[in-house]
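Tutorial handout. Part one gives the primary structure; part two gives the three-dimensional structure as tokens.
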Amino acid sequence: MKAPLFTLLLSGAAAAANPPAVRVNQLGFAPAASKVAVVPAGAAKQFAVIDTASGKAVLRGALGKPSLWEPSGETVRIADFSALRAPGTYRLEVAGLAPSAGFAIQPAPYRSLNAAALKAYYFNRSGTALDARHAGIYARGAGHPDDKVLVHATAASIGRPAGTVIAAPKGWYDAGDYNKYMPSSGIATFTLLAALEHFPRYFQDQEVGIPESGNGIPDILDEALWNLAWMLAMQDPADGGVYHKLTNLTFDAMVMPAEAMAAPRYVTAKSTSAALNFAATMAVASRVMTPYEHKLPGLSARMLAAAEAAWRWARANPSATFKNPDGVLTGEYGDQQLDDEWAWAAAELFISTRQDDYYRAFKPAQGVTSLLEWDKLDALAWMSLAHHRASLPAIADRALIAKRSGEHADNLARAWKASGYRVAMRAPDFVWGSGAVALNQSMLLLQAYRIKPKDDYLQAAQSGLDYVLGRNPLGYSFVTGFGQRTPLHPHHRPSVGDQVAAPIPGFLAGGPNPMQQDKAECPPYPSKLPALAYLDHVCSYASNEVAINWNAPLVYVTAALDELSRQDGNGMDQQHPSLAALARQEQALQFDSFTSATALDIGMQLVKMARAAGKSVAIDITRNGNQLFYHGMEGTTRDHADWIRRKSNLVNRTGHSSFFVHTQVRSNGGDHDNIPTMDTRDFAAHGGSFPLSVRGAGHVGTITVSGLPGPEDHQLVVDALKAYLKGDPTL
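Part two.
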């Protein structure tokens, strides 16, 4: 049973007053990751990393120069122990200070955290009971079926006058409360879908123990589908408009969901922001759903149609901004500036439909805002365009797309490098949900890294997660249940109302917030400084609430860092292998002879592998200018054939795989989309075309795949050749 609130307040205040002296990521690191701790500036100038199994120092180093970090008012030093790569468990020691929390070095160090952060959505499901088989000690009764919801007077229409009863079941509770809001819901769902779209291999095997586990659909998509079903129900079929939220008139008490269903629930007015948010999310969902058409027939097409209907409604109602009506006191999510929503929706619809008009509506000349939050979404547009830029129609300015992603990442990397805490967070970033700001910064840095693998991007992204997991002035890992010092009293009704002492694990608490909107209801914060304004109290919705749109970047970033740290047999990152590793592939994957029958076998092998992975690609095998095999899978277009032509031209010009040339140019600091003497209309330095070589005859043609990000196109060809030739599995 939980302790009385007064006791919780006292214990939280005591914990905040005694942060650990040595602040470090309390979970750990991949072997090749950058590894940094922060210590107070003092007399000590050295640090040691201790193997906890033997008690012996395995690494010693010099602390960095003292540096002031203004958000916390501290002067600190950096301990950089990135050179330590051996798997094990460790702690960091500095003379005169208590040792750090323990941490591990191991492959995929965030797999368990990722599973818990994803499963947090299951624990926030509306409209269903959580049984003990899947929820364990956090099992609970069903709450808010939302099968009989009233149309609020502000949402009334001719077909649905005020008081009309509609059904909008499923969905996730937004945060610590039991209402459901379209703006936060859309960005949370999008981020989960983006994580799957960007790192499909990671999530194919990530089962987290939800009722749908084992159904042939990745758990992350199953969980997103629970919320997408609610979102679809929030669209008025008569006109395509989308209700802004489904809500009580006031917040429920701090009780379990099943005890909070007496008050009527309403859908409130439609809004332009809700329609655009919905359109963007459904456009993404439609393309992510395509490989699962055989399991959910027609759903992808339904989602795309719903997205376009919402877009049309928004175009007809461009100024329908939302304000809470009189008598409605729950979260407003009011947004009066909608340029970013227009950009995001237009970009996602362009990617999914390939219609040029959406790209024009995107207005590509505009820049990127400095923050990514629920009401600043244009960075998502650039992120999605960057991921898909290799296969976009000709109207898309690929160089500009890469430039925009790089500009934002460069700004974040500069802030990271200048920071005393070695994080990109600056004083203005400490807002409501500051922990999610740190992770959103990491998400954008990781996307930029996937386009242009600069070490600064990856290290700055790692630092954002390090900050959330303990390398911060308070020494908290802000994720419940993960780390030595974690929030015990989040502002989250199920975690307060149940009879379990520990909060549900895997939720990201909001984090320091100097605006302290709850200060009238809470005891004094320990500080007004941006990075210290935090209370581990149930009263503190301003600093200790959880939210679905905050957990989403935690899912994305942990998966990305785990996946990008996967190593091949040479110890190189599989998405960005070394030139030596790529050259070894070309040398090993050669044929003794190559006939038309060989081309058919290889082509069908590629089709089989793509289908098994739920991918849609175009495949071409050409020998001595004679096309021996071509197949365009469902969903491919003539754009893919053009990419095949341009990538294979590059291979025929250079004799190397298109990914080798891509990697070579970028390792020399060049732009792979602007190679001197190579017209981009005829040559494309993107992965996916591999030299067809016959021993004794040399380079005689190409084997080319298009439809995935370049590294994945390349890897699909290599995997197929390894399987056919029974080659070295470490290639």
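Part three, for discussion. DSSP finds 21 helices and 17 strands in the chain. The domain at 579-725 is CATH 3.30.450.150 (Beta-Lactamase).
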